[in-house]
Amino acid sequence: xxxxxxxxxxxxxxxxxxxxxGLPYLQRSPAKENIPMVVELVSIxxxxxxxxxxxxxxxxxxxxxxxxxxxxxxxxxxxxxxxKIPEPKPTVKRDLKPKPVAKPKRKxxxxxxKKLAKITPRRKPTPPDPFALVLKNLExxxxxxxxxxxxxxxxxSKKSDFEQQIAKVLTRRPISESSSSRIxxxxxxxxxxxxxxxxxxxxxxxxxxKGAQNIVVIIGASLNPDGRVTRAWVKNRSVLIEDPFKxxxxxxAQRAILNQACQxxxxxxxxxxxxxxxxxxxxxxxxxxx
Amino acid sequence: xxRKVTVRKNLITRLKSVFLGFIVLVPLNFLTFQSALGExxxxxxxxxxxxxxxxxxxxxxxxQQEIESGQSISGVIRANLExxxxxxxxxxxxxxxxxxxxxxxPQFQNWRILNAQALVQGQVTLISNNRMRVQFRLxxxxxQQQMIGQVYTTIGTNWRRISHIVADAIYKRVTGEEGYFDSxxxxxxxxxxxxxxxxxxxxxxQDGENHHFLTDGSSLVLTPRFSPNRQEITYMSxxxxxxxxxxxxxxxGRQEVLGDFPGMTFAPRFSPDGxxxxxSMAKDGNTEIYIMDLRTRQAKRLTRHSAIDTSPHYSPNGKxxxxxSDRSGTQQIYIMNAKGKKVKRISFxxxxxxxxxxxxxxxxxxxxxxxxxxFYIGVIGVDGKGxxxxxxxxxxESPTWSPNxxxxxxxxxxxxxxxxxxxxxxxxxxxxxxxxxxxxTPMEASDPAWSPLIP
Amino acid sequence: xxxxxxxxxxxxxxxxxxxxxxxxxxxxxxxGELKAKSxGELKAKxxxxxxxxxxxxFSITPGSGRDFVVNVGDRVFFAVDKSNLSSEARAMLEKQxxxxxxxxxxxxxxQGHCDERGTREYNLGLGERRANSAKxxxxxxxxxxxxxxxxxxxxxxPAALGHSEASWHQNRRAVTVIAGG
Lengths: 290, 455, 181
Known about the structure:
The structure holds 3 protein chains of 3 kinds. Among the domains of chain A are: 116-174, no CATH class; 194-290, Fusion Protein Consisting Of Minor Coat Protein, Glycine Rich Linker, Tola, And A His Tag, Chain: A, Domain 2 (2-Layer Sandwich), CATH 3.30.1150. Chain A has helices at residues 2-28, 31-34, 138-172, 185-199, 237-240, 244-258, 272-275, and strands at 41-43, 77-79, 217-223, 229-234, 277-282. Helix content of chain A is 36%, strand content 9%. Chain A is mainly α. Chain B is α+β, with helices and mostly antiparallel strands. By secondary structure, chain C is of the alpha+beta class. The radius of gyration of chain C is 16 Å and the shape is globular. A 4-stranded mixed sheet of chain C has the order 1-4-2-3.
């Protein structure tokens, strides 16, 4: 009876001690988990290694009679093991499929974010070339710069006047006075536009990659009342994680929404409950003309 | 939560839609749909094509030697990433408080202030026998997570190579594509007057370092190309005034003429498995494409046409061959199967097309185009669609792909002075066409060929 | 006959001049400007720049390479991307064939060349085609094919520098070189 009591006491003390000493230790150095495992790059045979001397500028003498020396080959370096760091699992609530949405307007040049709600008329996409927008084509540039420069400018200023007028008309409409949870389409659209224009400069694409135009990333984000993003996660991570390129695209989108340089979003604090959670569809297909 | 829009609002919306007609009809309907779902959804359809700001700290070390190695390694990594055009290395002078150890989580706010989106830390430890351990971590500054962390052990003299391997790992983790920094370039170093040009085979790392000459310039040499899997280069030499295709062994320095052809052989390239060399032979005024099996030494003719058929290059899967022919009257690009059958023309733009090179990714073919008195480097889909011109000049020629298919190297001749002189240099350009860089070589340079990733 | 001697003399003089330039500069200076000069002068110069090292005075050995260059003409020219022979080229090759018949023990190599406005590999093929069309005509005129070798230099060995048609025309050529001469 007594010995078992002692045993119990010892065990309890141990558990308590562990929880006091052990846990904070674990918390303090989370990097310990990430400590890279040793990967041995085996170098085969030291004589096959490159000479240690720094690279000497070759003399532009040509009339040497001696044959060139054989070049020592590059040393073989074999990676025996590659460490993989486990990805933190995001809390995926549900996997929202990207809805077929109306094609947003096409802008050839980035327009500075406007505070007013703005509706840009939908324009026919001109380039049939799938890479035309993000990828350079010398031939096209020659043609378009000469032909289309001036008239386009005119159109643009006209258009934005028109846009602003419409926007004014729309925003002037009396908003349903009662509650913050009720908003007009106009307000909704203004919010979306605010976030959209804010994020665009922070979304760095990888346009040269194969199939880059086909990857849609859905990001969920929580916002603070001050309009800053507190948390963002990739909602369709499961379909992206298998391909390193898709994963990279997902992370690019995640970085765009987490980039403080593009925040805070200037949204009406009274409507916070509407925009405190947002879902963002990152879809670059349009930039590739598709 | 009641965020649903009232019927009345919907009505108003509809009226507005009608009022605004074609302009806003579609977006507003879409909004109605969205708000009915009760969630704010934003479609981001446009972004920027800016390089990713990355902070590459000097790899830390204990001893002076370790610290110096660490600086050199970081320098190579930084330069590699920058040159790719996909990264922008943040100036080390701006760093606020660099972590002194690799074993703690970085102070992300210090890096966020600099707008660094990724952070590279590393450590160099010299161990016995001139061996070196290099470890690094790549951090996502916004997500505050480690993206990758690795350790390499190697011979100390190998530090440059390790730097390329680390840069490749970073490139791959961030872009999702294979890197290409641990690779080499073989090219032709040029000196002397243009009328009696002296040309030598030369090899260097992808960043222009580790430069070596492979031949002494006594024979005219042209168009070197790497074997996909051996330390070998195939090229053309005028040795003994008999222009033939040769194979150069990088390990031994041995040069060997390939086959016993009755005519001039040129334009050689290895097949993707490395077992065959495909090339042209010109005899009696007719140039045809041949293959030579390197194991059996048997040669086989693939084309039968009175035209000049040259510059053959295998598709990455080895099933097709793209080549250059003037059978239509001018130089154009054609594809045929590996047996030389089913020839199909794929270039139809204005001008002459030459030097087709199949992308390692398989989807594109790079070429040289001549039109309107100018030369261009461009890419075209395998189906002949989507031609895009990336670089131009008085003369640009000889595109070659980086192992990951993202970058093209080529050479450019720039007329200079009054005596018809010109300057010949190698350049690289990103597939987007927006990141052109000169590759600095000790002397003038042409005919670059990119190696595969070093195995 | 007197006239002929005069030409010999003039050609020899030009040759000396060309060779001196070459030795001084070690480069192709002076040969870049070939445009409006007489054919004879042009040939002498280019030939001198390519092969000879030392001027040998005024005596030209009949049947020698110099004899061939000065008194016959060693090259024919081609249109852009073409290898067919113009009437002038045919006339020149007829003269060459006649000379080769007179000196039946002489062998030749025909070099095919291109201008700089093409890609390297294609130009190798094109140069070979040009050399061969010259060879074919000589053979058709009764010269044994065993006496004629061909080699293509593509765009690797221009005869004239300069980035205009005047130079390019000089470079699109087939040059008959006397073996050992």
